[in-house]
Amino acid sequence: MIRLLNQKKILRLLYRNNQLTKQEIAQMLNISIPTVISNSSELIKQGFLEEAGVAESTGGRKPTIVKFIPTSRYSFGVWVTREKIRIILTDLNFKIIDEINFNMIDQLYDFRDIIVKVSKYIRDIINNFSISPNKILGIGFSLPGTVDEYKMILKNVPNFGMKNICFNEFKDYFEFPLYIENEANASAYAEAFLNFNDTKSSLVFISITEGIGTGIIVDGDIYKGFNKRAGEFGHMTIVKNGRKCNCGKKGCWELYASKKALLNQYKKAFDDENKNLDDFLEMSKVDKKAQNILNTYIDFLAEGIKNIILILDPQNIVIGGEIFSYRDLIEKKLMNKIFENNSFYERKDCTITFSSLKENAAILGAALLPVKEMLF
Ligand SMILES: [Zn+2]
């Protein structure tokens, strides 16, 4: 147990620092040099590390450098949305090595059908790259609903009209361990782990796509709540007795502030089913009516974010998902609205940014799940 913990500590340290001498590792982790030597030779045997020459001596023998090998293992990420499935293969630096997308078709409505297709594509990717199966850590799934990752159950997916899908039943389709997580939680992990070097311990990720999902990181880990559904901010009431939601409630935030909500408002106002969001957004640069719709949308988005700040007081809020395509049109107004007219907080109290992972946060978060298991 202690050996395993020490090995994970050494792996984490080298993962962040790329290469260090054995002396430096001992100092930084506060463990003895013989412990570093025996554990790092075990990690070299397993292929995670390699020796990379010697550093200048500071007196006595020249210290040996050990180096992390990012291609020592690989991970699969799968992101399931209402429209399509994305599958990626990454190395340990989260470089995307291969990607396959397929569209959801309505007949594919047994979840098992999706799994069968995913397993076929994963086999294709492995054959393409001739990666040895023992180098693959596992397959992480980013899912659009509440997830119990220990019981491996996708509990509630209002937008698919599905409940209680048990991933343990799908194990036989794959030769690697499976991991599942809610897509907003996975995105929050990705933001915290890939962009912030784990130093940002308090973060809310707001994913704006078809709906709105949020992932909450407190003290460096996801806050899930007693029934694993914390952070369902997309379904907090923003208009009492408002529009009817798939979840059974009325006036949920995502019906006013998601990408789909914005598009629906445009279609309704202009009685035009054929234009897409880009067309309408282009119009909003010159047309007053289109502009007003965008402003109302930004108002609703800001109201929800203000509530989140008041409830959680997070150090960081990261906005991601498909909102990226119209970020430039809303960013300035949104920030002003979030910070206006309140006596509780000012701009320096909460850093709000748009995700630099763009539309990749959820899928990289999926690929991160098996890697987290390896490092923590
Ligand atoms: Zn709802």
Describe the protein.
- The chain is of the alpha/beta class and 376 residues long.
- It folds into 3 domains: 2-68, Winged helix-like DNA-binding domain superfamily/Winged helix DNA-binding domain (Arc Repressor Mutant, subunit A, Orthogonal Bundle); 74-188 and 361-375, Nucleotidyltransferase, domain 5 (2-Layer Sandwich); 197-357, ATPase, nucleotide binding domain (Nucleotidyltransferase, domain 5, 2-Layer Sandwich), CATH 3.30.420.
- It is 39% helix and 23% strand.
- It contains 11 helices and 16 strands.
- A hairpin with a 3-residue loop joins strand 4 and strand 5 (84-91).
- Helix 1 crosses helix 3 (33-45) and helix 9 (288-312) packs across helix 10.
- Bound molecules: zinc ion (ZN).
- Belongs to the ROK (NagC/XylR) family.
- Transcriptional repressor of xylose-utilizing enzymes.
Spans of 5+ residues with little confidence (pLDDT < 50)? none
- Secondary-structure-based class equals alpha/beta
Percentage of residues assigned to helices: 25-40%
* Small-molecule binders: zinc ion
What do we call the CATH topology of the largest domain? Nucleotidyltransferase, domain 5
Write the layout of secondary structure elements.
Blueprint: H1 2-17, E1 19-21, H2 22-29, H3 33-45, E2 49-54, E3 64-68, E4 74-80, E5 84-91, E6 96-103, H4 111-129, E7 136-143, E8 146-148, E9 153-157, E10 162-166, E11 178-182, H5 183-195, E12 203-208, E13 212-218, E14 221-222, H6 254-257, H7 259-270, H8 277-283, H9 288-312, E15 316-321, H10 327-339, E16 351-354, H11 361-375
Parallel strand pairs: 4-7, 7-11, 12-15, 15-16
Antiparallel strand pairs: 1-3, 2-3, 4-5, 5-6, 8-9, 9-10, 12-13, 13-14
Helix pairs in contact: 1-3, 2-3, 5-11, 7-9, 9-10
